[in-house]
Amino acid sequence: MYNKNYYPTPKAVIEQMIAPYLDGIKKMNILEPSAGMGAILDHLSGWSVGVQKTRLYACEIDQNMKATVIGKGYKVIQDNFLNYSGAMNFDLIVMNPPFDAGEHHLLHAWEILRAGHIVCLLNEETIKNQNSVFRIQLGILIEEHGSVEYMGPAFETSDRRTKVNVAMVRLQKKAAQSDVKFNGTGSATVNEINLDSTESSVEKRDYIASLTRAYQMAINSTQAMYKAMMEFNTFVGAFCSTYDSPKLMAAFFETSRKSGFSDAHNEFAIAFQKHAWNTVFKNTKASGLMTQKVREKFEKWREEMGGIDLNQENIMMLFDALIQQRKVIADECIVDAFDKITSYAERKAPGEKWKTNSLFMVPEKFIIPWIIEKSKYSGSLSIYYRKQDFLDDIDRAFCLISGKAFPVYGASKEERKSFIKTTHEAISEWCSDRSLPEESEFFEFKCHIKGTVHFKVKDHQLLAEFNRRACTAKGFVLPDEEKFRGKARRDQKVK
To answer: Among 219, 228, 318, 434, which is 20 to 30 Å from 209 by CA?
Structure first.
């Protein structure tokens, strides 16, 4: 069943909407704030217009329609457009908003647009009947920055018809102008100015005045540039390392040089969003559930969405999803840890993996290779970077079973008292000081310089529950633990 506000835009109306912008439309970044099933987007990306899908963005509140739009390859950056905070930069916004809230959508579009054009379809009563402060505000906006064309019942030929009389509003928002005005070509030299001529003395004085003013403004702008860079480093530094921040800035300048500000801004926004979301995961209790696999799934979803905006609504949406799927995520985390440990287990011959049979359990003692690496230059020891998430995910699994808290980055001194001592942390400390105990919250371990670490689970009941949860989730028959442990001891004696 259609959403009550869903009235797909007829092809003839779309053509009329975009006609004034066709000359430069292929280079525009375009937003459709109420995408529906993607009629406007399909027309823009079709052969007759030819806008690349990478330049098309959408919002759609209906989840089924949103799935359709994503399936077509378009980037959905927000569910409810009215909650979109405007991280991306657009040149054109093409709108067919809900008829009963058109003024709110158009006013919001004007707010988030930095510079460019808006073309919007409204119920003509929204324009003619100014019975609210929002409609009055919209009327003033149209008078100062745009125009209105009354189209009559333009949706009589739509896939879902209505006799509502429609108005098409066009708005143009100009970019903020610089105080610097230079009337010359920018490439003149002193030799190009005829100092002996008296016929163009006014032009010469104007030209020289422009040069000197541009020179002075360039000098003065260094202060503003420094201030802007300090602000950039301050705000970006809250999300990025000192290594990543300069890379983002360099990429921004390179893209702006090649493609202009709009493309550079959007490229930066998408790259920066990844760092911002990672910070949310790291600095909140969500990190207790965010295993490597869960983070990878979210990142894939974020990329499919086209760079979902970091705002309060989307953060809460993510947290709600994590809470609702807590049991599923916990089972995945436990199974993932189980698979990671058993992937290195040997039963009969070196390198042979445990088989899917009645003996498929994590024993009290197990060995994981390639955890520690030795520096070729200093000889110092550290955890191999590819095994950091590995160790954390195993600890997360045991935390989920035991009910203990996995550490949250940036927690207060008081909060840190309730967190476990992670295996990652314990091994890192041992690498710096080999006299320290080889023990974490859940494991005793023995590190070997060749990189291998031998683990012993401290809590047998916790291990039994870990095996039970993992085998149940995987559909394995859980073996008798005592028989298994007795066989394991006999196998060790044989060896």
So the answer is: 228
Rg (CA), the chain: 31
Which stretch of DSSP H or E encloses residue 87?
none
Q: Rounded to an integer, what distance in angstroms lies between the CA atom of residue 495 and that of residue 491?
A: 6
Domain presence at residue 4: no
Question: Please, what are the averages of pLDDT over each run of 10 residues along the chain (495 residues)?
Answer: 74 94 93 93 94 92 89 89 86 93 93 93 91 90 93 82 89 70 41 48 70 80 81 83 82 85 84 81 64 72 68 77 75 85 60 43 87 84 85 89 80 74 91 90 91 92 90 73 49 47
Q: What is the pLDDT of residue 302?
A: 66
Distances (CA, A) of 207 to 180, 199, 215, 276, 326: 14, 14, 12, 47, 69
CB 206, CB 183: distance < 8 Å: yes
Pair 167, 261 in one domain = no
Whole-number Å distance between alpha carbons of 139 and 119:
15
Q: Last residue of some domain: 297, 323, 349?
A: 323
Give the position of tokens 């006014």. Answer: 202
Same domain, 72 and 137: yes
Residue that terminates a domain, selected from 127, 151, 173: 173
Residues 336 and 455 in one domain: yes
Q: How far is CA 372 from the centre of its chain?
A: 32
pLDDT tens, 154-180? 888 777 778 889 999 999 998 765 443
- For residue 6, tell me if it sits in a domain: no
297 and 398 part of one domain:
no
Structure tokens at 161: 């018809």
- Regarding whether 214 and 83 lie in a shared domain, the answer is no
Domain total for the chain?
4
pLDDT digit string, tens, across residues 437-452: 899 999 999 998 888 9
Residue in the block written with tokens 């959007």 = 266
447: DSSP letter: E
Show the tokens assigned to 109. Answer: 């579009």
Evaluate whether residue 134 is within a structural domain: yes
- Do 336 and 285 sit in the same domain of this protein? no
Q: Which domain holds residue 225?
A: 178-230
| CATH number of the domain within which 110 lies | 3.40.50.150
Residues 359 and 436 occupy one common structural domain:
yes
Is the same domain home to 47 and 31? Answer: yes
